[in-house]
Amino acid sequence: MAFITVAEAAQHWGVSERTIRGYCAAGRIPGAELIGKTWAIPEEAERPGRRPRTSAKGRTLLAALREEKAAGTSGGIYHHVQVELTYNSNHIEGSRLTHEQTRLIFETNTIGVGDAVRVDDVLETANHFRCVDMIIDNANRRLTERLIKGLHAQLKQGTSDSRKSWFAVGDYKRLPNEVGDRKTAAPEEVATRMAELIARYEALPKRTFEDVVAFHAELEAIHPFQDGNGRVGRLVMFKECLRNGITPFIITDEVKMFYYRGLAEWSRERGYLLDTCRAAQGAFAELLRYFRIDG
Q: Which of 82, 98, 94, 4 is nearest to 43 (CA)?
């Protein structure tokens, strides 16, 4: 099979190279392969078609989430966000629970039968559902250290980590840690760096999609907690999209390697993470059209 470059595909289809990379990351170009840091696109590939829009809208996403949460609605957008955000965010961090087990815990508070599962996986799944409720309830509030620490406390409540003397549940890390092979902020630096990061972010006159992603990348670079940084960070990112009228998105387990690369390369090339998040945002926008919800 013959391949062309991203630049050649962009010229051929009359779109930006960023759009092409977004198509690839979202799996919308069959046969596209990531070779090193670049995409190879089948020569005969066709440009993905525009996704149809629906006209019957009315509710905002935050209103729909709150209404369905209060009513205990099954099968709606709240149900979908709870299961998909929890399953994918936990799986990225190594949870062994299946999608079906995750769904059952949310719907029936059981995990069914089958292979043995880790107690922590079950606890952190149930805890993550409550974290999603927290970001919905607090969506319009400003971002604070107290809220971020509160999400971590809820996520880790009752887990084996909470019984370790050196593990600070709901507080910043006590021991140095790494993410991948990258150094993170020293424990004694975390409080100052987090306060500065939040102050800079809250001082922005208007927070854009790029600002929200940038905050996430900087939070993950600090890595303020001993464990649970990614899940807390993605919850915060979803909350801030709701707060600022930005279509949110879910980083799925299928694109985690692109997401990891984007975080690793953020200081050098922001496009990798932004493109991955935009592709995820496009998938979520399609979901909103299905449920007839305004972004």
A: 4
Q: Which DSSP state fits 177?
A: -
Three-class SS state of 86 = helix
Is 47 inside any structural domain? no
Residue 49 lies in a domain: no
- 38-42 vs 293-294, strand pairing mode: unpaired
Q: Are 259 and 253 in contact (CB under 8 A)?
A: no
Count structural domains, the chain. Answer: 2
94 in the same domain as 14: no
What tens-digit pLDDT sequence spans the chain (295 residues)? 788 998 898 888 888 887 888 787 767 888 888 777 688 898 888 888 765 444 344 689 999 999 999 999 999 999 999 999 999 999 999 998 999 999 989 988 777 656 667 889 999 999 999 999 999 999 999 999 999 999 999 999 999 999 999 999 999 999 999 988 899 999 999 999 999 999 999 999 999 999 999 999 999 999 999 999 999 999 999 999 999 999 999 999 999 999 999 999 999 999 999 999 999 999 999 999 999 998 6
Kindly state whether residue 268 falls inside one of the protein's structural domains: yes
For residue 27, what are the domain limits? 3-42
CATH of the domain at 187: 1.10.3290.10
pTM of the model: 0.79
